[in-house]
Amino acid sequence: MIPQEFEYSAPTSLEEALHLISDGSAKVLAGGLSLIPLMKLRLAAPGHVVDLGRVPGLSYIREEGGKLHIGAMTTHYQIESSALVHSRCPLLAETAAHIGDVQVRNAGTIGGSVAHADPAADYPAALLALDAQVRLVTASGERTLPIQDFLVDTLTTALEPGELVAEVIVDVDVDGATGFCYQKMAHAASGFAIVGAAVRVRRSNGRVSFSRVGITGLAPKAFRATGVESLLQTPDDVASAAGAVADGIEANSDLAASAEYRCQMARVYTARALRQALARIA
Amino acid sequence: MSMATTVTKAETLVGRRLRRKEDPRLITGTATYVDDIQMPGMHYAAILRSPHAAARIRSLNVQPALDHPGVAAVFTGADVAGVGPVPCGASLPGLRVPAHSVLARDRVYFVGHPVAVVVATDRYVAADALDLIEVEYQPLPAVANPEKALEPGAPAVHPEWPDNLAFTYHQEGGEPDRAFAEADVVVRQRIISQRLIPTAMETRGVVADYRGAEKSLTIYSSTQIPHLMRSLVAQMLGLAENRLRVITPEVGGGFGSKLNVYAEEALMGFVAMKIGKPVKWIESRRENFQCTIHGRGHVDYYEIAARKDGAVLGLRLKLIQDLGAYHQLLTPAIPTLSVLMMPGLYKFRNVSADILGVFTNCVPTDAYRGAGRPEATHGVERMMDLLAAELRMDPAELRLLNFIGADEFPYATATGLSYDSGNYAEPLKKALDLVDYHRLREQQQQAKASGRLVGIGISTYGEICAFGPSPATPAGGWESATVKIEPSGAVTVMTGASPHGQGEETTFAQIAADELGVPIEDVIVVHGDTAIVQYGIGTFGSRGTAVGGPAVYYALQDLKAKILKFGELLLESSDVTFSGGVCTCNRTGKTVTLAQIAAASYRAMKLPPNTEPGLVATHFWEPPNFAFPFGAHIVVSEVDPETGQVEIKRYVAVDDCGKIINPLLVDGQVHGGVVQGLGQALFEQAVYDQDGQLVTGELMDYAVPKATMVPWIESDHTTTPSPVNPLGVKGVGEAGTIGCSPAVVNSVVDALGHLGVRHLDMPLTPEKLWKLIQAGGQA
Amino acid sequence: MHRKVPVQTTINGEPVEFLCEPRQSLLECLRDVIGLTGTKEGCNDGNCGACTVLMDGRIVNSCLVLGVEAQGAQITTVEGIARGNQLHPVQQAFLQNAALQCGFCTPGFIVAAKALLDQEPAPSEERIRLWLANNLCRCTGYDKIVRAVEQAAQELREVKA
Fold first, then answer.
1. B474: cis peptide before it, omega within 30°?
2. Chain A neighbours, 3+ Cβ pairs < 8 A
3. What's the complex ipTM?
4. Which of A155, A282, B702, C45 has the smallest CB count inside 10 Å?
5. Chain C partners within 8 Å of B37 (Cβ)
């Protein structure tokens, strides 16, 4: 339970950080909740760790151009407790509040979480439901990817060597017209999602005019359940629409839950989240 | 001689909710646990462990580790050939005891088996060097499931015993065959008490310090049994017992997992003697899960015979005990406790039990909170519910019908025990009143009618504790105490018990303060240092207060007799009483304080006839019997039909642990015990895969209950003093754990009973329940 | 000898400078380098809460923070909760309720509970349980701990009132 030796850098500017990671050999420390345990088990043994903790300007929450921009080093606690997030993107605040425990939320960052791409992490479900984009930067430029393209597979993202997550950009919901909810079945020991469902819905003339359903824990990577979205025509369709959440999905199966059970829990939690979201529409 | 003010205490300290004397150091972070010990020149050990459950070690090259800067030494199995085997203290007829070297020789038998030890100037270097050791393993077939291990052709854990049987054991009482032949009804059930990981919050740890010039070794270890460890480790190392000192600093929980002598204790002693420097080894949590003993691990086949009016006639048990790969200190003895306890609180006159002790390629099982008795209680309490269901009787009524009567004590059980005292109906009736049972049943019917899955579960338990009479224990079952009154009158109690959270620094001080009539602040309780404290047995099996307490009490009686003699001398009277901390002459009313008596006893200007100077008394107390606490727990639970998740709506525990010395401490023992029981019932299970890899290898996978996962516990008591000891105490450390799991499982079976569910094995995971609900109760 | 890095920090209100290897956790630095052994290692992977400390006002698992990350930070450990001999109301309430047995988890609980009450004067029972969900206790269950925190909260409110 002791990491191998490594060189440690704590850059104080983004340029310096990007330079330090430019050859792709360094590991980025952005909270450390996943990286440090892996290093202690020597399952990860980077020769060089670049700590983003001292890079100014990576921890922020601001509204710009109708979107919420959240800096990569913003902690889960900052998101869960931000008045701006509560008013403009309450789904994200609710999801952040479901992550792990207080100690985890105080140290963990949104950038660190998405870059780790744990298939049972909470954020991806919400980010999919929020049509999130991930802005990536390198020493030579930047690009922005939709979250579904950023998440590639279990513990695998589209991050290229030398690239950093700079910020996460999410849709803003105004005036309470959008119902939202994140519901999860948490693993009794780890608190990770056996399944988690993040949803946003809007209504118009008795019909569901807009819906987004993001699912985590069920599959090797979080996904947007477009089948559920298209079946959800009216509020009465919740059960049947949620019933489709696992259609065509190759579900995870492990000690915590078999594939069959996970699929069913995905249906149950999706339905619960949709019902609560519909009930929350102002 | 001056006149002292006579202090008459209105009430005793025993029985009061007093704060713990232990706590000021614990809440300020100033207590010293083994990992808090630092010494000049200290070295650090790291242990290389087998990644395989069964393998031959084909080659082992430690040279690269030895060459690593900062490494002082590396030792392997060949180097420790002179160290004696890891001891098994249990003896059963025909027991097969595998050779258990402190480091593997040519073969490994479970994942985590120690293979080599690296000693370095700091823990970082030691960890780095560990990775440099080259081992070539030839993996062998392994078996991790005890029933599979019994199948013909199963891999042999120890090649010399291809049937994997360490022992068989048979016990019976009465005429079980006749009882079953005459029964109106026989109910059978296979019941699993799954392997659990004790998970004391402090892992194990050892510091060993050898002083060559004195030829003396000091071992600091997080253990429950310092003196037994000294005897056994001295043997292993070939040391004279008086050259080995064992100190238990603060111990961060044990639950039986530190009621043991492990390879690492002798190994660190060996290392310290070899390198001539103090050495520290602290177990990682992963090692703790892989290498410290596990608990439970039963597959039990029960049969209960009864008349159709509900009277129980007989009980049969076939018990398959997963022993793991070796015997630790008490491994084979634990299931025999299940057999002793199998009749529970009921008048089973005819019982029969067979134990099959089975080797598997897993870490050994041994004592874990309750040690054999939770398994037995779980079995008999499940069987009583199955019988009640079969006879369509109320489970509370069935129990009340079959309890041993309050007028039948001492009661000789069919398993050879003599239950000391009891009134088994009383806690059950109290618990039924607390939950308003009949109304609760009505509410349950209403809830069920509306589709909710609400269940009520009852468990009434008894336990054998206060271990115990010496002839019935592997190592002597007495306990010792020395009470010293210093010349100033300050009182020091030295107990041979080794409390590690139970609070005997407080309860023993209460006893001493009462007996001597001094303020509790004047008393300190010392334990856990073999160089200071007289030989003792230790703290386990709910014996600390129930056996250690009487030893303190009797030492105090000896001391009081001596105090009285000095009082008579100083007051020049033969009509003197000692009370409230003073001796008073009943004729003149003159008094002399304990401090004055103490000073005079050490000054020794005059001595009473046939009396030595000083005020010190030692008593070794041999208990005439075990003590048998009992109680009733009732659980109301609700199962979410969509997910299978269980919510505990109410938890009521009525425990009878005899007389209570400090209710504040008893509350903590009950709560903690219940939460460990809830852990077994709902969450915890050590899972090995078929290759013997521990799948639940860390706290991310193994679900120890958290604050959010457990209900409030409504705790109450009845009080039936034990006649076994002068304090009337019975013991409470394991009660909550023993009473809990059947109450939970019975409640959930009750919630699902209308679906045809008869039985559920633990842990009651949501998926398990969901599948049953889906299948309409058919597993 | 490995290359060590100087770290300047403030621990329990006092400026502290220490040297550590980058791979040493804050927990190891506190215990082994600085000699503040009140903070405990229970699992070393962030799942038990025994190593909980306050870092810049927020509780963290010090086993998952590198010592070098503490540069410039304000750290409070269990040793810094009392004011001299004056126990903090949380400690007082743990004492009164005997909300501990072996005491190994206790430093983490006390630091976590203090942090809760610093920011929320009247937490509900549910809130207390959620806040303490990463702090495992194996001896005592949680009833007495939750009650102690409730009692400390009330005490603190009365002091402020």
1. no
2. B, C
3. 0.98
4. A282
5. none
For A172-189, the pLDDT digits (tens) are: 987 789 999 999 999 999
Per-residue tokens: B341: 């306890």
How far is CA B174 from each of CA A137, B52, B277, B316, rounded to the nearest angstrom?
81, 47, 60, 12
A240 to chain C nearest CA, in Å? Answer: 33
Q: Is the peptide bond before B410 cis (omega within 30 degrees of 0)?
A: yes
What's the rounded Cα separation, in Å, for the pair B142 and C20? Answer: 43
Q: A230 touching C, CB under 8 A?
A: no
Q: How far is CA B47 from CA B37, B252, B426, in A?
A: 20, 22, 53
Whether B253 and C139 lie within 8 Å, measured CB to CB: yes
Q: Identify the chains in contact with B, defined as 3+ C-beta pairs within 8 A.
A: A, C
**Which CATH architecture describes the domain A61-171?**
2-Layer Sandwich (3.30)
**Are B86 and B218 contained in the same domain?**
yes
**B84 pLDDT tier (thresholds 50, 70, 90):** very high
C-alpha distance from A169 to closest chain B C-alpha (Å): 31
Q: What is the CATH topology of the domain spanning C89-160?
A: DNA polymerase; domain 1 (1.10.150)
| Cβ-proximal residues to A5 (8 Å cutoff; 6+ apart), any chain | B124, B128, C2, C21, C22, C23
B284 touches chain C (CB under 8 A): yes
Q: Give A-chain residues touching B645 at CB under 8 angstroms.
A: 185
B235 CB within 8 Å of a chain A CB: no
Q: Thinking of the domain C5-80, which architecture would CATH place it in?
A: Roll (3.10)
| Residue C161 CB partners (closer than 8 Å, separation 6+) | none
Find chain A residues with C-beta within 8 A of C45's C-beta. Answer: 1, 37, 40
Checking DSSP bridges between strand B298-306 and strand B279-282, what pairing results, if any?
A: unpaired
Q: What is the pLDDT of residues B190-211, one digit of tens each?
A: 999 999 999 999 999 999 999 9
Q: Are B336 and B319 in contact (CB under 8 A)?
A: no
The verdict on residue B178 lying in a domain is no
